UniProtKB/TrEMBL annotation:
<feature type="region of interest" description="Disordered">
    <location>
        <begin position="1"/>
        <end position="33"/>
    </location>
</feature>
<feature type="compositionally biased region" description="Basic and acidic residues">
    <location>
        <begin position="24"/>
        <end position="33"/>
    </location>
</feature>
<protein>
    <recommendedName>
        <fullName>ATP/GTP-binding protein</fullName>
    </recommendedName>
</protein>
């Protein structure tokens, strides 16, 4: 089979969606705290350092994590969480309460 020239577009596949601003695929998670949009961010796409609201530690550049915001909210309300902190948020004590009013 002949090779396509570099940069050639395949016509037999649908065009890819525009890339999400934080990398990964967005999904809706309905929890007892409310409905949230959650997007995974790969380590390669993580270029800044953030403060995780779950553990109050840094989510350093290069570390895979999740970006979360209320489903009915604005993307300006997004928060960057360690994946494990997001999954454990309702079972741990101390910091880790959701940073949004419910």
């Amino acid at each position: 089979m002949p090779r396509r020239p570099a940069g050639a577009v395949r016509r037999d596949r649908p065009a890819a969606r525009e890339a999400a601003p934080f990398g990964g695929r967005e999904e809706r998670q309905d929890t007892r705290e409310g409905s949230f949009l959650v997007r995974a961010v790969s380590g390669a796409a993580a270029v800044k350092t953030y403060r995780c609201p779950g553990c109050q530690q840094e989510v350093r550049a290069g570390v895979p994590h999740v970006v979360v915001w209320p489903a009915d909210g604005d993307v300006t309300e997004r928060r960057h969480w360690h994946g494990s902190c997001w999954h454990r948020r309702s079972t741990r004590g101390g910091p880790g309460r959701l940073p949004w009013p419910i």
